Amino acid sequence: MSAAATLDAAKIGPHARVPVLDVRDLSVEFRTRSGLVRALEQVSLAVHRGECVGVVGESGSGKSVTAYAVMRLLDAAGRVTAGDVRFSGIDLLAASDADIADLRGREMSMIFQNPRAALNPIRPVGRQIADVLIRHGGVTRDQAPDRAVQLLAEVGIPDPRRRAHAYPFELSGGMCQRIGIALALACRPALLIADEPTTGLDVTTQAVIMDLVTTLARERGMATVLITHDLGLATEYCDRIVVMHAGHVVESAPTAEIFATPRHPYTAKLIAATPRPGVPLSGLVSIPGNLPDLRATNLAPCRFLARCDRAHADCAVPPLLRQEEEGRMVACRHPL
Amino acid sequence: MLGVTVRRLAAALPTLVGVVIVTFLLTRALPGDPAAYFAGPAATQQAIAEIRAKLGLDQPLPVQFLDYVQDLLRGDLGLSITTGQPVLHELTTRLPASAELTLLGLLFAGSVGITLGVLAALKQNSWLDNLCRVVATLGVSLPTFFTGLLLIYVFYYLLGWAPAPLGRLDAFASPPPHVTGFYLIDSLLAGDLETFRSALAQIVLPAITLGIFAVAPIARITRGSMLAVMGSDFIRAARGHGLSGRTVVVAYALRNALLPVVTTLGMVFSFLLGANVLVEKVFAWPGIGSYAVEALIASDYAPVQGFVMTMGVLYVLLNLMIDLLYQVIDPRVRLEA
Amino acid sequence: MSATVASAPPKAGLLRHIRYVLGENPVTALAFGLFALLVFAAIFGPALVPYDPIAGAGPALQPPSAKHWFGTDSLGRDVFSRVVAATRLDLGMAFAAVAIVFVFGTLAGTAAGFFGGWWDRIIGRIADTLMAFPLFVLAMGIVAAVGNSVESIVIATAIVNFPIYARIARAEANIRRDAGFVEAARLSGFSEGRILLTEVAPNLLPIMMVQVSLTLGYAILNCAGLSFIGLGIRPPTPEWGIMVAEGASTIISGEWWIALFPGLALMLAVFTFNLLGDGLRDIVDPRKRT
User: Fold this and answer.
1) Cβ–Cβ of B237/A114 closer than 8 Å?
2) Chain B residues with at least one Cβ partner in A under 8 Å
3) Within a domain: residue B63?
4) Which domains does chain C possess?
5) pTM for this prediction
6) Domain regions of chain A by residue span
């Protein structure tokens, strides 16, 4: 419980402006049969209390890996090779497994993509929420089922008392995601990481789920990280946006600014590829090329180089230049 | 749930009919003339013909089959020539000995196999994992009767830890009062610890011999399915919600991983019931297997047919039970049916 | 270099693949070596052994020595000579049983999968009914019915393996029912029966061969188990199962070698075929590698 004690001190202490989550220069590698994959390189991002930060990028850009690294949920093949992850001042990478397990689900929690697969298929959903409550919530075994029903009601599940006995396969995808939200928010965490919370759901459900997440987050003053490939979704709900490409953070800025004046060529292309009001669908531009092979040993310092139409000769010269000014960051030698 | 049970029972009926037909065909395929066999070497042609008529062997095959089924329904499996006893009676008195041995063997195989499989999966590529792989390949290569003899040599002859391999109790103990027919349970019910210890000492080696054979497939499948489950999304999510390692492994992973293991129990039972015959012979265990072997050697066919049918029926029922067990632990099957 | 690889005939590709699998997996190479040894013992063993396997060669119940590597049994026969000489009978029975079930099981299963309908229903029902018995028990029943002889052991072992072969062949034939080469043969006017024999069945051979090596181990165990309980083989014929049975009475009084060596030979043979089966499966169907 030592971590929890430090945590409370950090919350109420003089360091109140310490970000809830502060990731600095995080690098992650995966050992695979076909070679070493440098999945993340010097990824930095910070989230403050009550703030919602969107992490945006194509699939394979390292968004989920970042989330898993923060939550210490990487596969056995994955390894953090450098960097620093602090949660309310606690060094998450150095914390013991037991301390991490105490924090997960209680102080920092996660909504997983593919809601049905993230639930135990042969345990009633109410039981699964009760498991988390009993583990962290200071709730006794007898009280847990009632509290679970209450949580189901809070995430808008009709007839929660009956649904608590349902198994995941009996519920729709949207219902399963509501269960996922109930699980993540059961213990009123300080940090919520939502990993593609709406993929696979139909558009109406998407909006309902997102409103639910943001409302609950705002009510409770949570720090929220929204991971999505959908820039439109991120602009709608987030205060800041972090753009990732091939394991690098290429740009980060307040939402309004990034939209008005994107500085990284990749961000500009992403915006051009995102449907938005006033632009006909035929005006959308797709981004050329693919993500580079991260197993290659001769990767250019800028991993966008091969796809970039503004590439200069000096872009291939290490190191990757990260320019910071007034709360904005762009990783490009020749920004827009 | 009840409806599903009834439906499964109904689905097992054709298989039971199949078992009866096969057993009947085996009876009729007997070498030589059963009538001449029953009549004895000194019988005249006329005596043989009379016996043939009496046994109904002069009737067409379908009629003989109906007679056979009628006898079965009356519980008449014929007489054993060597002992002069009704086969049904001898099978039912010997069945508990076989069942006790098989179940204990399964218990051993299940606990060792599942533990080994789970540990191997949790510590992939460790020495335990390698041990699991060796056991999985070596285990299925072991001739049961040979393992039994080796264990007897080591634990009876060399070490003197085990009693002589001569049946269910040592010579000085008497069987406990009959309740279930399982000596271990009956002796406990009677509060007779002396008999319990004797029965336990006798059953340990044969049960382990039987179990070793089945450890391999159970360990192999547990390891595989545990590996698959541990890599699945919901386990990552369960850890992400902070559930303790034990809850994740036992309540979340293991319960899911056991589903394929339960499905393969059918195959495991096929192994166990077959190997049971050999183990009973090695350990002079007074079950239905050794009864059938003795009868087979003496060309006493009624007990053999009765034995084959009993085993067939038992095996069908066991598979039915496995089916039902599967529905208890997997809600998807239970509720969708 | 790449041009030669691309233009290499498929046969060379297979050989390369086999060499690759053997190189990757020394255990499979070991299994091939053991298999060669077993076949050698089966063919030449009886001619090469130092003593007559069915006649007394010295004093009874001698422990292993330089003269008698595996000792002598209760009739003074040389255990080593008997163990080696028995290879031919044990492998012979298993090979015969598997050859029979390979032919009939594959044909029946292919017919069920390819023709469907009544063929499928009848063959499926037969397989299901046979599967309703514990295999060894069914084998005992068949030996009792057909007669107590080596032939009936072989037949019984073949029959109890029938469902496995029929099911695999059925599934594989079903997939190829409307494959391109089958359609082509149909368009050429071949009859369905001819297509089954000349087009579909040969296509199943690789997969069925894997099954052969996987079931050979079980077939050896099954035959030896039946002879262990006193069926089929009559003394003094050297055979591993019956030799273990003969050694069973002396092991309790400490003469371990009479049962141990034939038992180990049996284990080694079964182990070899199990390894070989796993290895062949890797070569034929790399997806199922565990």
Assistant:
1) no
2) 124, 231-234, 236-245, 247, 251-252, 255-256, 259, 329-332, 335
3) no
4) 2-288 (1.10.3720.10)
5) 0.81
6) 3-107+187-330
Residues 130-149 of B with CB under 8 A from C: 137-138, 140-146, 149
Q: Does C113 touch chain B (CB under 8 A)?
A: no
3-state SS string for chain B:
CHHHHHHHHHHHHHHHHHHHHHHHHHHHCCCCCHHHHHHCCCCCHHHHHHHHHHHCCCCCHHHHHHHHHHHHHCCCCCECCCCCCEHHHHHHHHHHHHHHHHHHHHHHHHHHHHHHHHHHHHCCCCHHHHHHHHHHHHHCCCCHHHHHHHHHHHHHHHCCCCCCCCCCCCCCCCCCCCCCCCHHHHHHHCCCHHHHHHHHHHHHHHHHHHHHHHHHHHHHHHHHHHHHHHCCHHHHHHHHCCCCHHHHHHHHHHHHHHHHHHHHHHHHHHHHHHHHHHHHHHCCCCCHHHHHHHHHHCCCHHHHHHHHHHHHHHHHHHHHHHHHHHHHHCHHHHHHC
Asked if A121 and B329 come within 8 Å (Cβ–Cβ), the reply is: no
User: Could you tell me the CATH number of the domain that includes residue B160?
Assistant: 1.10.3720.10
Architecture of domain A3-107+187-330: 3-Layer(aba) Sandwich (3.40)
Q: Do B245 and A121 touch (CB under 8 A)?
A: no
Question: So what's the pLDDT on residue C194?
Answer: 80
- Within-domain flag for B23: no
Q: How confident is the model at residue A15 (pLDDT cuts 50, 70, 90)?
A: very low
Q: Which of B95, B138, B146, B288 to mutate to test the interface with C (most CBs of C within 10 A)?
A: B146
pLDDT tens figures, C226-248 = 999 888 888 888 889 988 888 88
Residue C153's pLDDT is: 92
B226 touches chain C (CB under 8 A): no
Q: Is residue B161 part of a domain?
A: yes
* Tokens linked to B195: 């008999």
- The answer for residues whose C-beta is within 8 angstroms of residue A58's C-beta and 6 or more apart is A229, A245, A287, A291
B21 and C CB contact within 8 Å = yes
B141–chain C nearest CA distance, Å = 5
C122 at interface of B, judged by CB pairs closer than 8 A: no
Contact B331 A122 (CB under 8 A): yes
pLDDT tens for each residue of C16-69: 767 766 666 677 778 888 888 888 888 888 777 777 787 777 777 777 777 777
Chain B closest CA to A311's CA: distance in Å? 39
Residue to mutate among A114, A131, A139, with most B CBs inside 10 A, is A131
> What total number of domains does chain B contain?
1
Is the ipTM higher than 0.90? The answer is no
Q: Is A114 on the interface with B (CB under 8 A)?
A: yes
CB atoms within 10 A of CB A296: 12
Domain containing B254: what range? Answer: 96-336
Q: What span, in angstroms and rounded, lies between the C-alpha atoms of C27 and A50?
A: 60
Residues of C in contact with B146 (CB under 8 A): 244, 259, 263, 266-267
Whether B177 maps to a domain, the answer reads yes
